[in-house]
Amino acid sequence: MQTLNKSKNHSMVFRADQVGSLLRSDVIKKARLQRANGEISLEQLRKIEDEEIARIVLKQKDAGLQAVTDGEFRRAWWHFDFLENLVGVDGFWSGNGIQFQQKQTKSRGIKVTSKLDFGNHPMLEDYKYLHRVAEDHVAKFTIPSPSMLHFRGEIDKSVYQDEEEFFDDLAKTYKKGIQAFYDAGCRYLQLDDTSWAYLCSEEQKEQLRAKGTDPDHLIKMYLHTLNKAIADRPDDLKITMHICRGNFRSTWISSGGYEPVAEQLFGHLDIDGFFLEYDNDRSGGFEPLRFVNRSDLNIVLGLVTSKFGELESKDEIKKRIEEAAQFVNLDQLCLSPQCGFASTEEGNLLTEEQQWAKLQHVVEISREVWK
């Protein structure tokens, strides 16, 4: 197992943080529909997106957040938009959506059709714009974890006959991409990942085994690939991971606490922080946090739900932070919503006003806890 680099000095700690995606505004939804219908040009769409992103960045600043995102306003999906713009990956209409509880996403799939690489990715320009409008705030950018290309994608066996060659190229591709975002000015990068939540769920692991996939082998390969991709990154680049159990129209996919993967993830993945969903009983208890064995690893507790608009009790959130602090030093803990508000462009079932109230709630609670 790779030895963790504990000498890095990542000083960016945000007691109040966010996962990244925000509800698409009516202006954005209308413009994207107009573009799909050929009524406006790509340049016109981008100008509208620029204006709306500048507006919501200002809203994030007003809410008291120190790290701001573009709300993923230029994307339809949290993962496919990024992955299908890697060299060697094609997106296609699959005819099947991803099944959530009683709901299904629209059709989309990705396939590896040639050797992987990171080229002139369009999201580099997306980041540069966010960096400009963030000004004195930290511009946080979110991309899917490398695991997601394997977990959600099809791989042409004539391109990659050998699994190890695929994962080796995947790690190199992400390593190159991470450096490209750094060179564009990014100092806070988040990897979003649903595969680890599947690996926490006995039901989902049984489904994987039924398809001929060994969950333990996935854990080993994903961990190795992630560490290889982020190895030797610049000391002033903060990399975190959000582990998600599914977030589509306020529904979910998997259940299960972090115990099955906690020792591997918290003990052997060389990143700077984890965003963990803890907004309901499906997420399990805080006991798996006992495997956090580094004082420089931040755990961002997703105790405020992004799925519904009602505000949680401040006292209840504070009580749960105290419970988590029995396993991890309070100084290493932070607070955020459990997920983004719109992992896909459809968004969760709450209003924009409720969304901003949630983020304000996170900021207020964090100021009271970490005085």
TrEMBL record:
<dbReference type="InterPro" id="IPR038071">
    <property type="entry name" value="UROD/MetE-like_sf"/>
</dbReference>
<dbReference type="GO" id="GO:0032259">
    <property type="term" value="P:methylation"/>
</dbReference>
<keyword id="KW-0808">Transferase</keyword>
<keyword id="KW-0489">Methyltransferase</keyword>
<dbReference type="Pfam" id="PF01717">
    <property type="entry name" value="Meth_synt_2"/>
</dbReference>
<dbReference type="GO" id="GO:0009086">
    <property type="term" value="P:methionine biosynthetic process"/>
</dbReference>
<protein>
    <submittedName>
        <fullName>5-methyltetrahydropteroyltriglutamate--homocysteine S-methyltransferase</fullName>
        <ecNumber>2.1.1.14</ecNumber>
    </submittedName>
</protein>
<dbReference type="GO" id="GO:0008270">
    <property type="term" value="F:zinc ion binding"/>
</dbReference>
<feature type="domain" description="Cobalamin-independent methionine synthase MetE C-terminal/archaeal">
    <location>
        <begin position="19"/>
        <end position="346"/>
    </location>
</feature>
<dbReference type="InterPro" id="IPR002629">
    <property type="entry name" value="Met_Synth_C/arc"/>
</dbReference>
<dbReference type="GO" id="GO:0003871">
    <property type="term" value="F:5-methyltetrahydropteroyltriglutamate-homocysteine S-methyltransferase activity"/>
</dbReference>
